[in-house]
């Protein structure tokens, strides 16, 4: 008879993990937005100016934080982008895009059916074909600061 059953599960670290954070200058702009709003409300009194400073800085910080909150991960046979989970078996060969080629795939070469995680402040990307015949999505386009590492993680984990 079994007294205790011990189940051992191993948690595998992601092969790739990146948060697409906003540039530091955007945080400075959020604070400057708060100061400019405070200057608008300062004629109504110092308390109104202080409230506007706090509200404007908070609103600006929220907007910057929302732009820099997405994550890209490759773990457990999946490409995880935000809420999307794409099996690596459904992906083809990743293509590293830099400079003009990355801009082209963001603009005039883009397919409206593609899954795209774009950030204007990141100029490099990875494009991966979807090889699943049942999926109407032609490819995945991901802005990333380290496209070589992401492409290698997709290749190595598949």
Tell me what the structure shows.
With 158 residues, the protein is an alpha+beta fold. The chain is built from four helices and eight strands. The protein has helices at residues 24-41, 46-67, 99-106, 147-157, and strands at residues 16-19, 71-75, 78-81, 84-87, 91-97, 115-117, 125-130, 139-143. The strands form two sheets. Strands 1-2-3-4 form a four-stranded antiparallel sheet. The chain has a four-stranded mixed sheet with strand order 5-7-8-6. A hairpin with an 8-residue loop joins strand 7 and strand 8.
Layout: helices, strands, pairs:
Elements: E1 16-19, H1 24-41, H2 46-67, E2 71-75, E3 78-81, E4 84-87, E5 91-97, H3 99-106, E6 115-117, E7 125-130, E8 139-143, H4 147-157
Parallel strand pairs: 6-8
Antiparallel strand pairs: 1-2, 2-3, 3-4, 5-7, 7-8
Helix pairs in contact: 1-2
Describe the structure in brief:
This protein has 158 residues and is α+β, with helices and mostly antiparallel strands.
Total helical elements:
4
Beta-strand proportion? 15-25%
State the share of residues found in helices, binned by percent.
Answer: 25-40%
State the separation between the terminal residues, measured CA to CA: 41 Å
């Amino acid at each position: 008879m079994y007294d205790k059953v011990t189940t051992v599960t191993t948690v595998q670290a992601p092969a790739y993990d990146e948060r697409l954070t906003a540039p530091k200058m955007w945080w400075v702009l959020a604070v400057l937005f708060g100061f400019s709003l405070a200057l608008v409300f300062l004629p109504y009194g110092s308390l109104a100016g202080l409230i506007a400073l706090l509200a404007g800085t908070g609103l600006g910080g929220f907007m910057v934080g929302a732009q820099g909150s997405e994550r890209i991960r490759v773990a457990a046979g999946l490409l995880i982008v935000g809420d999307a989970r794409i099996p690596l078996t459904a992906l083809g060969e990743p293509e590293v895009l830099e400079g003009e080629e990355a801009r082209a795939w963001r603009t005039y070469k883009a397919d409206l059916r593609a899954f795209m995680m774009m950030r204007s402040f990141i100029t490099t990307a990875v494009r991966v074909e979807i090889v699943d015949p049942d999926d109407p999505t032609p490819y995945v386009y991901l802005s990333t600061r380290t496209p070589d590492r992401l492409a290698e993680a997709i290749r190595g984990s598949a």
